[in-house]
Amino acid sequence: MTTTVSLKKQLHELLPALRRFAISLCGNVADADDLLQSTLERLLSKGIPEQIELMPWAFKVCRNLWLDEHRARQVRQKATQQPELQEATSEAVDTQVSDQLALQDIDAALHQLPHDQRTIIALVAVQGLSYREAAAIIGVPTGTIMSRLARARSKLAEIMGLATEAFSQQQSGASS
Q1: CA distance 31 to 163
Q2: Torsions phi, psi of 62, nearest 5?
Q3: pLDDT of the chain along its 176 residues, tens only?
Q4: Residues sharing a CB contact under 8 Å with residue 49, sequence separation 6 or more, in sequence order
Q5: pTM to 2 decimals?
Q6: What are phi and psi for residue 89, nearest 5 degrees?
Q7: Cβ(21)–Cβ(123) under 8 Å?
Q8: What string of DSSP letters covers the chain?
Q9: Angle between helices 142-175 and 131-138 (to 10 degrees)
Q10: How far apart are CA 80 and CA 8, in angstroms?
Q11: How far is the C-alpha of 18 from the C-alpha of 36, rounded, in Å?
């Protein structure tokens, strides 16, 4: 195990990259900061196994904590969709929530991607990790990283193309 002082120093240097990764997973700064705090708490309390590099391990811990929270939220959301738990004004609430959840530009496109593709984009495109490093963090072969990244990029282009077409149609409809 690494000494606590050395670990804290290494984590301090890794903090900005780890925070960017958390933001890309969560989609907002508040949840990302909570995720980052949980990640740091886990790393400091459990330590780093010997012969393991800190960066891939920290990203893996962060991703696993995020997946755990994401799954827990899905379970809670399903539970609240039970008819006996809904209020009579659920249509108005649904409309308001839908309006608030409308995302813009690349953030919207990223969040339309499946979680595995969004994670790959976050690691490779946002964090600048190599395919090998991303594969180590996620625990899949490098070829899987490459194919998921290709699918993610293709899907992003498709999503952004549709957004551009819709905007062009709005503009042409407004000018006629």
Answers
A1: 27
A2: -60, -50
A3: 456 778 888 889 999 999 999 998 888 899 999 999 999 999 988 888 888 888 999 999 999 999 988 888 888 777 777 665 555 455 556 655 554 453 456 777 788 888 888 889 889 888 889 999 999 999 999 999 999 999 988 888 888 775 545 545 554 554 44
A4: 1, 57
A5: 0.54
A6: -90, 25
A7: yes
A8: ---HHHHHHHHHHHHHHHHHHHHHHHSSHHHHHHHHHHHHHHHHHH---TT--HHHHHHHHHHHHHHHHHHHHHHHHHHHTSGGG--TTHHHHHHHHHHHT---HHHHHHHHS-HHHHHHHIIIIIS---HHHHHHHHTS-HHHHHHHHHHHHHHHHHHHHHHHHHHHHHHHHHH-
A9: 100
A10: 40
A11: 7
Instruction: Look at the block and give the residue holding tokens 């969004």.
Output: 118
Enter the tokens of residue 94: 């649904």
The pair of three-digit structure tokens given for residue 108, joined into one six-digit string: 């919207």
